[in-house]
Amino acid sequence: MNDLFSHSWLPYIYQYGLGAVIFIIGLFITLRSGSFNLARRIHRLWLIVLVVGFVWFVTLHAAMTLAALGHERIALAGGAGVVLVALVTGVVLGRRTRGRA
Question: What average pLDDT score do residues 21-35 get?
Answer without folding.
Answer: 93
